[in-house]
């Protein structure tokens, strides 16, 4: 993710009255610099060396703040742990059914499907998600 997107996210938080602590900045920066869709525990482990006094609860609380501000998505599929994604653009995921790894893949947005579903059902469709499941290249090599 670009540093300009990170700067925009920081500015949006400041405008919303959210104080930017060093830990909050580090968590946000980590999310904007990875494509791995980390869990809160993975974020904590990645940053605990830099912030030894930071707790897992701090990570969870900040993820909640970021989610409420519309800066990250919480991904709740694959394994039992929520994963977090700072890519807010419409995009889709392939999930490894063995290790739980989540990988983005580019595909044109399926927004037309939303309007067709709304037409056919009378629902006011608000969003959609698509996920594909398989075995990642790393797990294939281990077989």
Give an overview of the whole structure.
This protein has 143 residues and is of the alpha+beta class. It has 2 domains: 3-85, Arc Repressor Mutant, subunit A, CATH 1.10.10.10; 92-142, Dna Ligase, domain 1, CATH 3.30.1490. It is built from 6 helices and 5 strands; from the N terminus they run ααααββββαβα. It has helices at residues 3-15, 22-33, 40-47, 56-68, 111-121, 137-142; strands at 73-75, 83-85, 92-96, 102-105, 131-134. The strands form 2 sheets. A 3-stranded mixed beta sheet has the order 4-3-5, with no helix packed on it. The longest helix is centred in the first third of the chain and has 13 residues, at 3-15. The radius of gyration is 17 Å and the shape is globular. The two termini are 33 Å apart.
SSE succession: HHHHEEEEHEH
Proportion of β residues? 5-15%
End-to-end separation in angstroms reads 33 Å
Parts with pLDDT < 50 across at least 5 consecutive residues: none
Which key terms come to mind for this protein?
single chain, 143 residues, alpha+beta, Arc Repressor Mutant, subunit A, Dna Ligase, domain 1, 2 domains, 3-stranded mixed β-sheet, two-stranded antiparallel sheet, 6 helices, 44% helix, 13% strand, globular
In short:
By secondary structure, this protein is α+β, with helices and mostly antiparallel strands. The chain is built from six helices and five strands; from the N terminus they run ααααββββαβα.
């Amino acid at each position: 993710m670009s540093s300009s997107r990170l700067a925009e996210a920081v500015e949006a938080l400041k405008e919303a009255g959210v104080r930017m602590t060093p830990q909050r900045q580090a968590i946000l920066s980590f999310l904007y610099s990875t494509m791995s869709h980390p869990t809160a525990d993975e974020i904590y482990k990645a940053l605990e060396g830099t912030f030894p006094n930071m707790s897992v609860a701090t990570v969870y609380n900040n993820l909640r703040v970021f989610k409420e501000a519309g800066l990250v998505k919480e991904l709740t599929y694959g394994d039992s742990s929520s994963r977090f994604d700072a890519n807010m653009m419409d995009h889709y995921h392939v999930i490894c059914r063995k290790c739980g790894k989540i990988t983005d893949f580019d595909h044109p947005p399926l927004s037309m499907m939303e309007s067709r579903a709304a037409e056919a059902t009378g629902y006011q469709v608000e969003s959609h998600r698509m996920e594909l499941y398989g075995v990642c290249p790393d797990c294939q090599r281990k077989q």
